[in-house]
Write a structure and sequence with these properties.
Blueprint lengths: L1 E5 L3 E2 L11 E5 L9 E2 L7 E3 L3 E13 L3 E9 L2 E2 L5 E5 L6 E11 L5 E7 L2 E4 L6 E4 L3 E12 L2
Antiparallel strand pairs: 1-3, 1-14, 2-14, 4-5, 5-11, 6-10, 6-14, 7-8, 7-9, 7-11, 12-13
Length: 152
Amino acid sequence: MIQSTLEPISTLTSNSATVTFNNDDVRTRSANCCNWLQHNESSPIYKILTGGLYEVSFNANVTSSVVGTIALGLFQDGVLLPGTQMIAQIETTGDYVNVSFDKILKICCRGDATLTIASIPSILTGDEAPGETTITEVPVIQNANFSIIKKA
């Protein structure tokens, strides 16, 4: 198991940037480079080295320096995973919104995966398919937690 945090207020560099976690506050001995996980503090990259079922969770308080929409999600090998997109509408600059997801992730027995949390540069909005493309704003994040637990 690993749990990483990002406590201070952190403005991402763009609306497509990854989130860098500055502290691994909980890490079991099996979650190191010799077992199932590679991760260095102050890195946005989490490399799962062995197949299995993993519970992946994220939560954070987010805002933007301008009024608009922000979006974050979990990416596996550069692809946004379904069910992890988090969208927040910022009505007043500096007002925070809490976003979160929980996802069970299956990695094939001989496979591996690189996970990152990143901002999503555009999303579909509206109340009818296919929706309108909306460009997102640069997120400001604080009090973020990201955890990966090997279940099986």
